Amino acid sequence: MADTFEITRVFAAPRARVWQAWTEPDQMAQWFGPKGSRTHVLHFDLRPGGFLHTRMEGPDGSAMWGRNNYVEVDPPSRLVWVQGFSNAEGDIVPAPFPMPWPLHMRTTVDFADEGEGTRVTLTWQPVDATGEQWASFRQMLESMHGGWTGSFDQLDTFLAR
Fold first, then answer.
1. Do the Cβ atoms of 128 and 106 come closer than 8 Å?
2. Each residue of 21-76: pLDDT tens digit?
């Protein structure tokens, strides 16, 4: 079984434009998250040591918070952060679903020129996870592909505007 989740997509936009969609809060809020959700950026400090705090609202009105602690910011080539679910105040909390999910996930997003477009490769890997948390992560790989495919579909639509 894989120990890293990876998804790659080529977007029909220049790298600088795709980078902006990931690094400008007003743009990120328009596409980031699963299909049918709405993202609100509550805090955004894009620098190593800075963080992003978001609230996502599902189609049913439910709310879920997240926090990304930025580790690496290398414009326009790479973003690295450690993320987790959070509460409304931005404190890291266990996942809001009934399975042993890792408290922290390392996310790496690489941006590369691909002809006139941009290839984005995102990887996810648990940080300091227990054996049970690793097992849950591996079990959810297919679901993660579906979720990120939906987010990338929304990014495609956003970039085409």
1. no
2. 999 999 999 999 888 899 999 999 999 999 999 999 999 999 999 999 999 999 99
Domain tally, the chain: 1
Residue 101 has pLDDT above 70, yes or no: yes
- Strand pairing partners for 106? 82, 125
Distance of CA 11 to the CA centre of its chain: 16
Instruction: For residues 148-157, give the mean pLDDT.
Output: 94
Question: Degrees (nearest 5) of the Cα angle 145, 120, 148?
Answer: 20
Helix then strand then coil, in percent of the chain rounded to 5, is: 25, 40, 35
CATH number of the domain enclosing 69: 3.30.530.20
3-state secondary structure of 77: coil
Instruction: Give the rounded percent of residues in the chain with a pLDDT score beyond 90.
Output: 91
**Structural domain span for residue 35:** 5-159
d(CA 25, CA 27) in angstroms, rounded, equals: 5
**What is the value of pTM for the model shown?**
0.95
Q: Is 87 helix (H, G, I), strand (E, B) or coil?
A: coil
CA atoms within 13 A on the CB side of 64: 15
Query: φ and ψ at 121, to 5 degrees?
Result: -120, 120
